[in-house]
């Protein structure tokens, strides 16, 4: 297969490293045009939920060449090599530590290019051109020289469409989960009375030494670095220290960086062992459903209360203590009508079902990616596999 330097496949590289609002004579704002940063790129998606913003005038000065739908976003460092795509033509600022790669029309398919960069081969190529011992990063001059395998444009588009169908379904599921969470919070918010969290939950403190495990299947909830989501489910090989042993339905709440609400309802336990990282506080409901606890903690009031209790700490590793959390006031869901409580429980189950499907879709995509890129599987066979899971 022919290989060419990346720069020959691109119409343009947009690189704004070192550019900040202050250097443009302004500052970030509470609303306006979102600023894309490397930490907002995760799981093949640019998640702008926690993005900072600038005003329109700053955007115009910052982005003389506006981003376009389909541009490939590539993190240049911290971490290196994460990929996402610009989903539409809405105003967007390209922040530091991000490249925007615009595929040359009639030469490269942007989805194919992005998937190749995120493949094992692409990641290895980026790493081979990277510099830095503590933090690995890549300069634009080196990025241009990365050798990319080139297929005919029709094959590129077909590969991009097959893998893209899985990511499109993941995106649709993500939107459905957000809507379900918002509705659950809205229902719980109709409760006018407040109660201390410790009145409706208890902390679960059961542990075991994972080194003693002889099971092949272990469901493990953790918080990997740079993750802005709720949690991930890891393989047993990643379990290296004592964890929370979950033997009943619980809500997991992250102790780390409480500015980002990371809350996970484990509403049904499988036959295999379930563990959670010690970075979680495990809360079991008392007299209410698991969904009611989950929705109560998603209420912005709860996040604000947690922040207030960590106001005296500094640095990037703020943690809330379990005892502090029990003293926080939440909505008293016990006063909701039966129909409302049942709706909240149903929404919680829906969000968990969507999360399970996301795991299947993502693992299918990750399995097909190297097979398609290497030609070890035909596009037709890959399409059949996608049809079975989408």
Give the name of the CATH architecture of the largest domain: Alpha-Beta Complex
Q: Give the helix proportion (percent range).
A: 25-40%
CATH topology of the largest domain: the name is Adenine-n6-DNA-methyltransferase TaqI, Chain A, domain 2
Given as residue ranges, the uncertain stretches (5+ residues, pLDDT < 50) are: 225-231
Structural class: alpha+beta
The CATH class name of the largest domain reads: Alpha Beta
Question: Approximately how much beta-strand content do the residues carry?
Answer: 15-25%
State the end-to-end CA separation.
Answer: 31 Å
Q: What's the mean pLDDT score? A: 87
Strands side by side in the biggest sheet: 14-17-20-15-16
Number of helical runs? 10
- Overall 3D shape: globular
Overall strand count: 22
**Main β-sheet description:** 5 strands, mixed
Number of domain units = 3
Return Rg in Å.
23 Å
CATH superfamily of the largest domain: DNA methylase specificity domains
